[in-house]
Amino acid sequence: MRFLTLRRGLGCALIGCLLMAASASAQDAPPADNQDAPPSTTPTGDQATPAMPELRQEAAEDPQGTIEDRVAAAQLAGDNAWMLTSCALVLFMTAPGLALFYSGLVRKKNVLGVMMQCIFLMGLMTVIWALIGFSLAFGGEKAWTGDLAGVNAWIGDHEYALMNNVSRYWSPEEQRVVTPPEGEEGAEPGALPRLTFMLFQGMFFIITPALICGAFAERMKFSTMVVFSILWGLLVYCPLCHWVWDGGILAFVSDSAIEKKEGYGILGGALDFAGGTVVHISSGVSALICALLIGRRLGYGSEPMPPHNLTYTAIGAAMLWFGWFGFNAGSALLSDGLTSSAFATTHFSAAAGALSWPITEWIVRRKPTVLGACSGAVAGLVCITPAAGFVDPMAALAMGAIAGVGCYLACTTLKMNLGYDDSLDAFGVHGVGGTLGALLTGVFATRAVADISINGGAPLGLVDGVTRVMIGQVVATAITIVFAGLATLVLLKVLDVTMGLRVTQEQELQGLDLSQHGEEGYIFI
Q1: 3-state secondary structure of 170
Q2: pLDDT tens across 215-234, in order?
Q3: What one-character DSSP code corresponds to residue 502?
Q4: pLDDT value at position 142?
Q5: Coil/strand/helix, residue 372
Q6: CA distance 243 to 269
Q7: What is the model's pTM?
Q8: What would the pLDDT profile of 464-501 be if each residue is shown by its tens digit?
């Protein structure tokens, strides 16, 4: 037996040596005329996406390409794959995430009404974004071109209207398909396709007005909600988005740019990694104005109005936590170390919030609740959003814990003392949580985490020993609150006169499922 085993081993070794020799000989031999390049599974023609424009010509001349070209192409492919995944994650936050979270908190006669708002807005806001929204938010000269003086400080233009300069097109001169911003003046080599960036930002445009729906749940007319969402998106969200993320009056300006008197950012602008001001403060403040103007639900304060299905809410909260990784980590617009940091801070802050809110309940009311854990997790996610790419994970734990306690007090003590009916606590969680996050960004933002391109390696927050960023955060927060609040007030007043804001008393008692949509969420036979 030992002899047979030894003989088989020697035989295998001999075969291995012969195969290695044959392989080496094949590599040393010159290729045949019809075998200039090894077989490749890489997409070609219309499917190819090179890292930069000049790579197409290089690829034609040298199918194998240089190592640098291949690395750049692989990096772009990885970045683009992560960003498209992030698009799906953020869309997943609206439905089923937010739809389940909100629908579980209302009474059963309004469960479909809330779900319809989320799903309908997924379609409506996408169409508005494609037609003109993206262009208003990001159209015109760009800060990344280096010409800050060429950026419109207030609003974008029609550059990307109807997806012009966004979708791929055929170039007769070059006889090929071009993917913007490829080949454009000032475009960075290896930049993400503008379609990808448009899609990612469009998911934010969808979920932000959906957050506001939590304030007027169970009593606003569906038709008015539709018109309000369109106007609010174009007149509030798009300007804020341009101010913060496209070189406008709230955009962060580096120390070197300030010395050169470049940029429009008031008092240096603000840091907002993924939407503390643009998404959460704006929607939270607008939600409060909606709750105040529309008025309280019939029976509010005198009749019990408990959530009809906390199981939905718990599942929805878990989905929001999952989708938020795309929301925050995707805002790095790359797949690198900063993405990992933003991913970690997002998770840590949510975890701390999921503990601090129910622990506070435990101390105050002697019982921690599922609703408290779910709300605390969302509060932590909201708070870390503006800071995700600027703070370290331990700071994220502190921010999540602070948000859990702060939002709990806003949704209980503050709400009870002021007497407003914010049905699903959109202001208490998003308005207060977003404000805490924006301000705490000024405390914990550090150059030890943020990319050197943010401020050239100069100190950032109070933890770095400077107050400059903190001042910008306070100013940007105040401007966002005033602008969103006043704009929402004007919009609602106009809509109240022209369309009416609230359903009739009979319709409210019947429930929005039947009165607005002619359907019931639950039919028991």
Answers
A1: strand
A2: 999 999 999 999 999 999 99
A3: B
A4: 57
A5: helix
A6: 9
A7: 0.86
A8: 999 999 999 999 999 999 999 999 999 999 999 999 99
